[in-house]
From TrEMBL:
Signal peptide location: none
A GO term, aspect molecular function: prenyltransferase activity
A Pfam short name: polyprenyl_synt
Lineage: unclassified sequences, metagenomes, ecological metagenomes
Keywords tagged on the record: Isoprene biosynthesis, Magnesium, Metal-binding, Transferase
Magnesium among keywords: yes
InterPro entries: Isoprenoid_synthase_dom_sf, Polyprenyl_synt, Polyprenyl_synt_CS
Protein name: Polyprenyl synthetase
Biological processes annotated in GO: isoprenoid biosynthetic process
Gene3D superfamilies per UniProt: Farnesyl Diphosphate Synthase (1.10.600.10)
Sequence similarity: Belongs to the FPP/GGPP synthase family.
Length: 300
């Protein structure tokens, strides 16, 4: 059990360490088996996905849906699909033609470990595996499966992660307003949180009002995560390269760290309000969220 899971396990209700274990066990099953170097793309898929990480998105999906009374066995596979999308996006983000990163999740980045050719193919393979997993959910009716696939595709495509990455690369080197930076942050980080929680709402058969509350929570959480990432960039406390935002027009560069910390706190307060209205006080999902941010900010 890793340090993050151990810290959360006293939270009660579903036991976050158990949720994390379910996710990791299923990921290990659906990814190609360890080939000891015979299948380099398969090995890179495993390494890029199973490396130490918080599994934030799949955990949120599972907690959000279970909090609405959903115990579908499809939840774990949905969470795994989201994690594979996230892992694939990180592999692309780290490439020399993108952020040119050397370290991710405390290990050499996939392109440094396996080569750029394998890294590109690995990212594509993870994306296709994620969509295959969602489209083959036997417990989910075909029309709902189609909605889940569509939501995930929208998050990845030209109006989602792809657009956010392009804007970050090509606009980030130029002066931007706080509003423009926030819009890029929403695409870089927020859209996948939004898709994750929208999928939780779909599988849980949430009402329109419940879905709107989850969407509001996802919006605030996505912005908070991007602000946290920007705040941590100049430190040695991350499990990835530091200083990669140097020269970029981030909110930290524009407003300063103190102002960004206040913005982050505001986003978390708003996120809590959405959760309280949806689930009531003292929900596990809120405790999970705060522990993630509190631990990181204490180390900064």
């Amino acid at each position: 059990m890793d340090q993050v899971s151990a810290a959360y396990d006293d939270a009660g209700l579903y036991g976050l360490a158990a949720v994390r274990a379910e996710i990791d066990r299923r990921l290990a099953e659906v990814l190609p088996p360890d080939s000891q170097g015979k299948n380099r793309i398969g090995d890179a898929m495993r390494e890029g996905t199973l490396a130490a990480g918080k599994r934030v998105r799949p955990t949120l999906l599972i907690l959000a849906a279970r909090g609405l009374g959903c115990e579908s066995p499809a939840l774990i596979d949905l969470g795994c699909a989201v994690e594979m999308i996230h892992a694939g996006s990180l592999i692309v983000d780290d490439m020399p033609c993108m952020d040119n990163a050397n370290v991710r999740r405390g290990q050499p980045t996939i392109h440094r470990r396996f080569g750029e050719d394998v890294a590109v193919l690995t990212a594509v393979a993870l994306l296709t595996k994620a969509f295959s997993l969602v489209s083959s959910l036997a417990e989910v009716p075909p029309d709902l499966r189609a909605q889940l696939v569509s939501k995930l595709a929208d998050a990845v495509g030209m109006q989602g992660l792809v657009k956010g990455q392009y804007e970050d690369l090509h606009d980030g080197a130029h002066p931007r307003s706080a509003e423009e930076i926030a819009a890029t942050n929403e695409l870089k980080t927020g859209v996948l949180f939004g898709a994750t929680l929208h999928m939780a709402a779909l599988i849980a058969e949430a009402t329109e009002a419940q879905r709107e509350l989850l969407e509001g929570f996802a919006f605030e959480l996505g912005h908070a995560f991007q602000l946290l990432d920007d705040l941590m960039d100049g430190t040695q406390l991350q499990d990835k390269d530091c200083g990669k935002d140097e020269g970029k027009s981030t909110l930290v560069a524009l407003l300063g760290p103190d102002a960004v910390k206040k913005q982050l706190a505001t986003h978390l307060e708003k996120a809590d309000l959405y959760l309280a209205e949806l689930y009531g006080p003292e929900q596990l999902i809120s405790r999970f969220m705060h522990r993630l941010f509190d631990d990181a900010l204490k180390r900064r």
